[in-house]
Amino acid sequence: MNLSELLSKGLIERFQSNQEQIENQMKIAMHDVSSAKNMLQIGEWEWAYNAAYNAMLGAGRALMFSKGYRARSHEHHIAVIEFVLAFYSSKFDSEVLDAFNKARHQRNESLYDKAGSISQSQSKRIVEFSEIFVKRAAELLTKT
Description:
The protein is built from 6 helices and 2 strands, in the order H-E-H-H-E-H-H-H. The protein is mainly alpha-helical. The longest helix is centred in the last third of the chain and has 24 residues, at 120-143.
């Protein structure tokens, strides 16, 4: 989806953010990466996975805010992912972006439908991807 489609479908809207809001989203993202790593250490695979996904979501929101947009709809997770794909697909490794999108589905399943659906290896992998994603988002934000 491109920017025009995101706007016309009502997934995003123009938004005048400030630097503090962007920084707060990144602080949350970094905290969530740290929490995800801690949860891996105690074998909490689902919570580690969810925290890693939330870290990516927060960093994605920071990227949106920096461009003057925010998610508008009840499908705000999809909006953030689609925005990142539209604006930043060339700035991230495709494997990282694919993991972000797939993590949304897996997170929903583990939270709402099926307990124990996330394995140790899935959890470790998404934590690694979240760390890469958040670090890269931080780099991109310092360039703007």
